[in-house]
């Protein structure tokens, strides 16, 4: 067991190191001189030299990477070119809104997906099934930068129930969460349906039926609990997709999170901030995936024994 | 029992064909838009100030945008943009990704180990985050959008084809081909590739949907094609500022995008049902 966890953690550490290297190289992969791109062609030679020196871009690539790693290990992320503030300060202000949005979207997705998926599985190949799967297919086909404006059009402009944008209280969280959660809800409901259908064919469900248990009890206790394992894994793996989707959703609703900071920094050519944002989001993704993997191994001995 | 089975099978066939038919019609329309765009007398960048935000008239039945440009003309150019980006990305990533995956699995050993590590690192970036960073760093433009999205999407094909080849290269027919003295190229091309076509086709189809969305997403963020050229994503972004006055600015490109993606997904589902033996059982 311990070996399994250690192996997973070790491989996650390796992946994170690779991610750091790739994000570090990003700025060097840009065609042309990054300093020129940041300052514009009209900048004076003195300014260019100063910025090059303060970013350490005048050192060799390996020296720069070691310095980058050293900074990261001390939570020293450098300073923003635009606001001149430490990047760590900028980021800490933005983490909570994104966490809030992601968790709310997860909740929305579950609230939508479970009824839909269960309804579809229990009425396989009948109208409720077709309806639920139709809704889910449309859900995957509407990207969040379209879902957002559509929801604003309906719930803010026409009905006036929720604010159009910004982050002020619980009401302002509803539409962003719905936007971000809808795609996950669509995928999740399909998964719940498939997983439940598989379980419903098992012998122990027939036994439960033969014992004369009520239908609700069979579904809630015998079927759903066993169908839940792959669903939970999917949720774990999809939290990363939510983090990426949050970038666009935050732009639609002017939600002051990490995603908005990323895009704003790209627009201002504030590359050190972009690097740290990308690094933070992808590292979080790797950590969550690893935890999901480990949890899955703990819950299902077949996984860890097959390794 | 047999009769009900036949009945449901028939129903399934009918529903499948209706869905696939609908999907094919939408995709053909998309293709038609792309093919016709260069030959029609379009004025996607003509600014007509007195027609700003108008919903529709005789000249433009889909209305005008915030600069008085006809939405129908821009929709057609946008179709061209999304089509060329999508197929550019798919072909680059299909060849590069499948090539790396197949060769890596076939050779095995240290090289394969390295490739797996690289794939893992690329998979560690959620969704289009890496593409956002890349296209943010590079200058805007259609070629750079294709590069940025290809960097993200080759991994899927590499991982899929590697896993497939690992299983197939152990099979008897490959071993007997080797025993008969077939060259590596011949074995890969004639004895392995045909067997991994089905899963690749499915990945390819769903890939179309995700790249259309990704291209529009980048353009929505202002990281896609450059300003005057229309893209469905940038049309949606322009429209979000005028939701109250001119909702058609979001609805026209939005509904078009949604229909195309829906059609691709429908087709992908149908293809998976047809090709995937596991799901059929």
Keywords:
heterodimer; A: mainly alpha; 79% helix; 0% strand; globular; B: 281 residues; mainly alpha; 10 helices; 74% helix
Secondary-structure blueprint:
The complex is a heterodimer of chains A (307) and B (281).
Chain A: H1 2-29, H2 34-39, H3 45-54, H4 61-73, H5 87-122, H6 127-141, H7 144-158, H8 171-200, H9 203-210, H10 215-252, H11 258-267, H12 271-299, H13 301-305
Chain B: H1 2-36, H2 71-107, H3 109-123, H4 129-137, H5 142-168, H6 172-179, H7 184-220, H8 232-240, H9 248-275, H10 277-280
How is this structure best described in words?
The complex is a heterodimer of chains A (307) and B (281). Chain A is mainly alpha-helical. Chain A is 79% helix and 0% strand. Chain A contains 13 helices and no strands. Chain A starts with a helix and ends with a helix. Chain B is an all-alpha fold. The mean pLDDT of chain B is 83. At the A-B interface, helix 1, helix 6, helix 7, helix 10 and helix 11 of A face helix 3, helix 4, helix 7, helix 8 and helix 9 of B.
């Amino acid at each position: 067991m311990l070996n399994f966890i250690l192996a997973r953690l070790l491989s996650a550490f390796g992946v994170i190191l690779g991610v750091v290297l790739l994000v570090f190289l990003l700025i060097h992969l840009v065609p042309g001189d990054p300093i020129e791109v940041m300052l514009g062609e009209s900048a004076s030679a003195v300014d260019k030299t100063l910025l090059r020196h303060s970013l350490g871009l005048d050192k060799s690539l390996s020296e720069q990477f070691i310095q980058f790693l050293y900074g990261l290990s001390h939570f020293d992320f450098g300073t923003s070119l635009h606001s001149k503030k430490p990047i760590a300060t900028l980021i800490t202000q933005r983490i909570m809104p994104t966490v809030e949005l992601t968790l709310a979207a997860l909740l929305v997705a579950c609230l939508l997906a479970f009824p839909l998926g269960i309804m579809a599985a229990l009425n396989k190949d009948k109208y409720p099934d077709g309806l639920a799967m139709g809704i889910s297919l449309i859900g995957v086909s509407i990207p969040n930068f379209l879902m957002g404006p559509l929801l604003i059009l309906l719930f803010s402009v026409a009905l006036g129930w929720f604010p159009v944008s910004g982050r002020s209280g619980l009401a302002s969280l509803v539409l962003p969460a719905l936007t971000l959660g809808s795609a996950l809800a669509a995928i999740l409901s399909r998964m719940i349906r498939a997983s439940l259908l598989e379980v419903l064919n098992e012998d122990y469900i027939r036994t439960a039926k033969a014992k004369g248990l009520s239908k609700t009890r069979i579904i809630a206790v015998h079927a759903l609990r066993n169908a839940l394992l792959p669903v939970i894994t999917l949720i774990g793996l999809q939290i990363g997709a939510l983090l990426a989707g949050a970038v666009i959703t935050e732009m639609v609703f002017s939600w002051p999170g990490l995603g908005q900071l990323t895009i704003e920094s790209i627009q201002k050519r504030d590359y050190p901030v972009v690097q740290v944002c990308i690094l933070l989001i992808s590292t979080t993704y790797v950590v969550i995936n690893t935890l999901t993997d480990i949890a899955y191994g703990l819950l299902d001995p077949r996984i860890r024994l097959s390794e | 029992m047999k009769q009900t089975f036949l009945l449901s099978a028939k129903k399934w066939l009918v529903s499948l064909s209706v869905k696939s038919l609908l999907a094919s019609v939408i995709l053909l329309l998309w293709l038609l838009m792309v093919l016709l765009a260069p030959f029609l007398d379009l004025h996607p960048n003509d600014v007509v100030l007195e027609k700003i935000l108008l919903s529709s008239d005789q000249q433009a039945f889909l209305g005008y945008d915030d600069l008085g440009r006809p939405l129908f003309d821009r929709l057609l150019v946008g179709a061209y943009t999304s089509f060329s980006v999508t197929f550019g990305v798919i072909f680059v990533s299909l060849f590069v990704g499948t090539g790396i995956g197949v060769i890596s699995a076939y050779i095995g050993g240290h090289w394969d180990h390295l490739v797996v590590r690289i794939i893992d690192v690329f998979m560690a970036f959620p969704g289009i985050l890496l593409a956002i960073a890349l296209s943010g760093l590079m200058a805007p433009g259609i070629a750079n959008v294709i590069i940025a999205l290809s960097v993200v999407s080759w991994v899927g094909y590499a991982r899929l084809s590697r896993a497939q080849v690992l299983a197939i290269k152990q099979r008897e027919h490959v071993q007997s081909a080797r025993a008969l003295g077939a060259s590596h190229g011949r074995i890969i091309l004639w004895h392995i590739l045909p067997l991994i076509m089905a899963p690749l086709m499915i990945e390819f189809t769903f890939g179309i949907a995700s790249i259309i969305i990704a291209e529009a997403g980048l353009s929505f963020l202002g990281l896609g094609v450059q300003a005057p050229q229309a893209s469905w994503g940038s049309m949606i972004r322009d429209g979000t500022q005028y939701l109250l006055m001119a909702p058609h600015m979001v609805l026209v490109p939005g509904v078009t995008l949604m229909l195309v993606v829906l059609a691709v997904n429908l087709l992908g589902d149908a293809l998976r049902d047809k090709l995937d033996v596991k799901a059929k059982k």
